[in-house]
Amino acid sequence: MASHIVGYPRMGPKRELKFALESFWDGKSSAEDLKKVAADLRASIWKQMADAGIKYIPSNTFSYYDQVLDATATLGAVPPRYGWTGGEIGFDTYFSMARGNAAVPAMEMTKWFDTNYHFIVPELGPEVKFTYASHKAVEEYKEAKALGVDTVPVLVGPVSYLLLSKPAKGVEKTFSLLSLLPKVLAIYKEVIADLKAAGATWIQFDEPTLVLDLEAHKLQAFTDAYAELAPALSGLNVLVETYFADIPAETYKTLTSLNGVTAYGFDLVRGTQTIDLIKSGFPSGKYLFAGVVDGRNIWANDLAGSLSTLQALEAIVGKDKLVVSTSCSLLHTAVDLVNETKLDDEIKSWLAFAAQKVVEVNALAHALAGNKNEAFFAANAAAQASRKTSPRVTNEAVQKAAAALKGSDHRRATNVSARLDAQQKKLNLPILPTTTIGSFPQTPELRRVRREFKAGKISEEEYVTSIKEEIRKVVELQEELDIDVLVHGEPERNDMVEYFGEQLSGFAFTVNGWVQSYGSRCVKPPIIYGDVSRPKPMTVFWSSAAQSMTKRPMKGMLTGPVTILNWSFVRNDQPRSETTYQIALAIKDEVEDLEKAGINVIQIDEAALREGLPLRKSEQAHYLDWAVHSFRITNVGVQDTTQIHTHMCYSNFNDIIHSIIDMDADVITIENSRSDEKLLSVFREGVKYGAGIGPGVYDIHSPRIPPTDEIADRINKMLAVLEKNILWVNPDCGLKTRKYTEVKPALTNMVSAAKLIRNELAK
């Protein structure tokens, strides 16, 4: 019985690629050094899968930044502003598209479906001259072959590529991106020919947009595309891979009728209803790649349950046509449990990271073929039973408190307009108040202090002294820049979700459980294994210390319940809404303690609210109902004079703007600049927003420093659709990934732009 992995993490077990990328970007190492690290990682990944017995091993899933950007490079679809003149696309052009440079901004970055991974959005129009400009797919196939590993090259499918793109600046928003399909397919044919010539026998096209609710003309595009590619694909086995949700019934018919396609991959973890479609009819002689091992979470597979599912599918598709697979790429999970030295044995027995999932896939394939590893299955069953019965998972008091929430919608008693008036009397802020989102640069010295404290090399007193000194520097800098509402810079936090999880019950933490978010940015999601509560205050000490250093308002900085949920590995033994309500109660306690400590502005970040929106429209209203309710629970008990902020970033918010309004925050800061001010179109179309709002005026994920006039122009565009008395001026997101040499001039220009517009308004 055959086995398959959709894709694998790129960063390496100890973030080797991250450090190589950052060294290269900082000019400390060469392109050859970076390529050597990447080649070593690829070789290690391929060998690991081959040694585990995986038959269908992917190649071209490795990326220096993002797989969609890789597809853009392959197609030569480089926006003109980057000055590319043809030839093989090199690092200069590639990383300029991803990160921007001193002269031009980066391309838009947004969330990859409902994950915390981000991709670079292609910018297309009728004038784009597609050309085969990156031979990465065939080069990596040959590289693996030279190592003795025959792989399945993976390409972003042509239709999904276009559906994930956007019209370039200056192109009509009504432009049909699918009209570019014939031009794009011409390049795909060249890539396919190269792969065939190199000896490839399988090709995997990732077409994840097939799980969305697609209109008829978009479904037709899949039929047309694969019919056009069929002659080029002749002689190859072709897998079309889908993931992240159920396949709609009409889409299933289209997919299983595609010309030239020999295999279909389905996510049977998040797409359990797809099994019913398969049972109702599966094309004879085709392969089913059954994604029964979860690629998005870290819980050990229920091997007995998966084997039962596979046996039922085998009866439908045939023994030689069923392939055991992961539900999606393992990119979204941590790399290897072997590197976790501090997790206790009980919790560790409940988990499987990417390396362990590869073993699970192969074990299921062997069991299906009649070669079941009885000891492995028995250990798995024991771990499943342990998790269900462990007393550390359940807290009856927490469950009762969460259940009691359902009788109210938890709204503040006074409307937002009256609250803003009360807050202004207390805070006395100018028109267009300036602020930042929370974090300031995380310097090597700051990281060293946190690291040494965790390792017991410095005392708690020394640690507190160092962190307070860092807060003082951040406060003094903001006062020097004349920012109106200050932040303490979060020097005590390596990661916003990890920081809170460490102080809440029901969470476990890894040492090397890193997951790529974008580029070199990695996060270490906490593991929510049990009921959640707050044993003691989490941020009051630091926020109070920061407020004592200034007379200006100091924001208390919290992460919201939905974001903590969506940026964690979440328990799968109860509905996600139940876990979120538990977290909301813990954050509510913290909000009220901050207010008692004299913090008058409290930011509760919900950066990931949109990220968790289900991909299917029929499921979205239910999610938004409990997600928005959870946010309101956190701050329902505060006084009218306490100003509640929230923050959101790097998603398309236009389709949930009414739910954002329903959160009833006093002020929302929201990413805007990197997405070409797409957010403002909502207000141009007549949506009325009465609370404070700060659409970001510059992109913090690029080292580029925006000039004052550019920021002023952005503010004026906002004033064209928003009232001056509700508009705030702030960056897109937190500043932790930037350097002070970038932050100081950028914030200087931001404040100057705000003052410039204030003066114009005064006239």
TrEMBL record:
<comment type="pathway">
    <text>Amino-acid biosynthesis; L-methionine biosynthesis via de novo pathway; L-methionine from L-homocysteine (MetE route): step 1/1.</text>
</comment>
<keyword id="KW-0862">Zinc</keyword>
<comment type="similarity">
    <text>Belongs to the vitamin-B12 independent methionine synthase family.</text>
</comment>
<keyword id="KW-0808">Transferase</keyword>
<feature type="domain" description="Cobalamin-independent methionine synthase MetE N-terminal">
    <location>
        <begin position="3"/>
        <end position="316"/>
    </location>
</feature>
<dbReference type="InterPro" id="IPR038071">
    <property type="entry name" value="UROD/MetE-like_sf"/>
</dbReference>
<dbReference type="InterPro" id="IPR002629">
    <property type="entry name" value="Met_Synth_C/arc"/>
</dbReference>
<keyword id="KW-0479">Metal-binding</keyword>
<keyword id="KW-0028">Amino-acid biosynthesis</keyword>
<dbReference type="InterPro" id="IPR006276">
    <property type="entry name" value="Cobalamin-indep_Met_synthase"/>
</dbReference>
<keyword id="KW-0489">Methyltransferase</keyword>
<comment type="function">
    <text>Catalyzes the transfer of a methyl group from 5-methyltetrahydrofolate to homocysteine resulting in methionine formation.</text>
</comment>
<dbReference type="InterPro" id="IPR013215">
    <property type="entry name" value="Cbl-indep_Met_Synth_N"/>
</dbReference>
<keyword id="KW-0486">Methionine biosynthesis</keyword>
<dbReference type="Pfam" id="PF01717">
    <property type="entry name" value="Meth_synt_2"/>
</dbReference>
<feature type="domain" description="Cobalamin-independent methionine synthase MetE C-terminal/archaeal">
    <location>
        <begin position="432"/>
        <end position="755"/>
    </location>
</feature>
<protein>
    <recommendedName>
        <fullName>5-methyltetrahydropteroyltriglutamate--homocysteine S-methyltransferase</fullName>
        <ecNumber>2.1.1.14</ecNumber>
    </recommendedName>
</protein>
<dbReference type="Pfam" id="PF08267">
    <property type="entry name" value="Meth_synt_1"/>
</dbReference>
